[in-house]
Amino acid sequence: MLKSPLTKWLSLGAFALTLATPFAATAAEQKSVAATAIVEHPALDSVRDGVRAALEQAGYSGDNLKWQYQTAQGNTATAAQIARKFVGDRPDAIVAIATPSAQAVVASTKSVPVVFAAVTDPVAAQLVRNWEPSGSNVTGVSDELELDRQMELVKRVIPDAKRVGMVYNPGEANSVVVVERLRELLPEMGMTLVEAAAPRSVDVGSAARSLVGKVDVIYTNTDNNVVSAYESLVKVGMDTKTPLIASDTDSVKRGAIAALGIDYYQHGIQAGELVVRLLKGEEPGSIAPQKTAELSLFINRSAAAAQGVTLSQELIDSAAEVIE
Q1: Rounded to the nearest 10 degrees, what angle do helices 230-240 and 204-211 cross at?
Q2: For position 81, what pLDDT does the model report?
């Protein structure tokens, strides 16, 4: 029997709707996550990779995830531009890696969910008011370390150390917090702090050289300028036999003698798990900021020898990883 034009049209419409339905469902289920970091260096790259791994483990990959990533290459003005661009894209969540990028993103939006990572003190950085659920669009994971344990490591590596040098960017909030705390802590441990400012990554080498002869050891926190230019610091340490102690384990692989630090890949996974909770409907303001608690001791024996340090067997035996 011949079908009328109307019947044909209805049949074709139903067929088209049937074809379109799976695609419409896929589009509806797709989530969008934008990530930004202030600069590229091994620790921050590991955070980014950990976030992606957590998303993939939760089933967010391929067609059901739109992922964007941009780095500011150490430039705070660029970080602000990236933040505004991502906010304009209206993703389901923005992951802001390191304090300057987190500050830029949080300053750009009060509505798009934000998860910070690799931020030492989110309260001092004015990302959240306290460590309770913020009630805002912000949550995240801090990489804050107990500085007394960091200085105990300095003593274990250099038992006679009295003067601790620190190269840092005075414009980076997390580094300023560490410096202020060390000014108070070190005298209690029989040591003093000697500071050298490096406002740009290109200043790191000269700042380190200015400490030579004035300090017994140089300690580095997770200052992004310093970590991104760590090789220039290592060169000074080796040329002048000035020991380097780091706070991130990736820097040990690059030439620091030791670090008692977190695994930044696992830190990224922890941040990524918060993103997953947001993608599943939780509000960021209901999730209290977290810290990464587990620390690992990394030792670089060749760096110790090059910087004129003899490591105790007890210290070597207690390390989670020893780089020869």
Answers
A1: 30
A2: 98
